[in-house]
Amino acid sequence: MNSLTPRDLKIVPRRMDFALPDPLLRHWHSNDPFKTHFFNAMSVLFPDGERYFIDSVRLFRDRIDDPSLQEQIRGFIGQEGHHSREHVEYNDRLRALGYDIDQLEMPVKKRIRFVQKQFTAERQLAGTVAMEHFTAILADALLREPQWLEGAIPEMKQIWRWHALEETEHKAVAFDVYMQVCGDRDLLRKAMRQATFFFLKDVTLGTWHMLRRDGCANIGTWARGMRWLWGRDGFFTRLIPVYRDFYRDGFHPWQHDNSEVMRMNAAEFADGLVR
Ligand SMILES: [Fe+2]
Ligand SMILES: [Fe+2]
Known about the structure:
By secondary structure, the protein is mostly helical. The protein is built from ten helices and no strands.
C-alpha cells in the first residue's frame, strides 16, 4: 500500500522552553479538578511512553531506504524527545504539589520493560503505531475544537497545543515504517485493543489518585467528569468513529486529512517562539 502521508510534510522539532508556572496552579483547567487531572494523568504517561515510541522505531531505522521517510523518522525522534523532556518538567510540577507521580509511573515502566524483553520488535512497533493513532485523534480534537482547553491557563494551553500540533505532523511516521517492515494488520488490531485498555486504565487511575489527594474524589466530581468524557458530545464520545477507523483494512492515518488544521495552528509556534 502506498503511503498517503503528504510528500511535502516537514517534521521539524520546535525548541520550546515553556517555563511552566512554579508552583503550578492546582486546578489549572477551568478551576475544575477533573479536567485538570485528566490532562495531568496523560502527562504522567508521556516521558516513558514517548521514549518507548522512539526505541521501537529505532529498531527498524536501518531497514528504511526511502530518504524522505528517513528524514521523517529523524523529525519524529526529535519531536518525541522534546515532548518527553517538557513533560518531565510538567510532571515535576505535579510532584511538587504532592501527587505521587513515581507510584503512577511505576506500572508503566514495568510494562514497558516487560514488552521490550518479551515481545518481538514488530509487536513493539505495532504498540507504538496504535498509541500514535490515539495521540493523533486526541491532538486533532484539541487543535480543531478549542472548547476542550477553554478555561485553562495560557501556559498549559500552549504546552498541550504545541504537543498536539507535533503529534499531528508525525502521526503517520511509525505507521509508514510499520507498513514497510511488517504490515500485519491483525497484529495492529491486537496492539490497539491492548493499548486502549492500558491507556484508559492508566488515565483513570492517575485522575483518581490526584482527585483523592485533593479531597475531591467524590461521586459528583466523577460523574461530571465522566459526562464530559463519555456523555453525548463528550471528548471521548466524539472520537469513537475516528478511533474505530484504525481497525479497518486499508486504514492510513492521513485518510483523516487534517493538514489544514495543522497549517492553521503551526503559525502560533513558528520559530520555536511562544507567542
Ligand atoms: Fe509526543
Ligand atoms: Fe507521537
